[in-house]
């Protein structure tokens, strides 16, 4: 064959080899790129799963507070933690999901593996959100319980303070009966202010009893009974004080009438000693 035909065949063969090599290089390049993106995604997923696991330790804490101040502090810190974790986590999970969707859409060779990674990390994120919600509810319930105990202590203190004041009020000897009555009325108005607090405490105890059982339920009932016992004693003491002040007023009236009668009798005796006819009509209308 002519040299030109031989050259043409060789050129065609070289061109085919070049095209094949180019395609092979492109495939190799695409494979390397896919492998790189797979590694990138794997690292992102692994880091996110590790981050979620760390947050789960905090969200799964069993600590619910020793008293009202403690649980209030725990609740404030956890709400801050939950807000920050929710914002950061949602941003990171969205970025991973977007990367996964893009790789699958581009026809990544490991699409099945990538989809499994996506399902796994999204499930872990959902579990963390549920765990945080559960802890938030537990802390809220603990906060309500310890607030009830705190309110019981505060109300009991107010009742006992008024109970201590009452004997001093009703035994004040230097005050007039009118002054004692006015002071007692003012005191009773102060006591009436506590009626709403006592009723609110009873309603709170009834609500808590629908939530708690066991030791907590017993503690709720015990605190409520302590307050109600002190409240009934205060009311009884107020009634006793009212009767005492009323008796004192009656004694004052009696003493006043007796003094008036003695004064009249002394005047009558003076008239008799002077030989005058007693003026009965002055007193008795005769």
Automatic annotation (TrEMBL):
Keyword Repeat included in the entry's annotation: yes
Entry-linked PANTHER family: SPECTRIN/FILAMIN RELATED CYTOSKELETAL PROTEIN
Highest taxon in the source lineage: Eukaryota
Gene Ontology molecular function: any one: actin binding
Organism of origin: Bambusicola thoracicus (Chinese bamboo-partridge)
Gene3D superfamilies in alphabetical order: 1.20.58.60
Protein name (Swiss-Prot/TrEMBL): Spectrin beta chain
Keywords, alphabetical: Actin-binding, Repeat
SUPFAM superfamilies according to UniProt: Spectrin repeat (SSF46966)
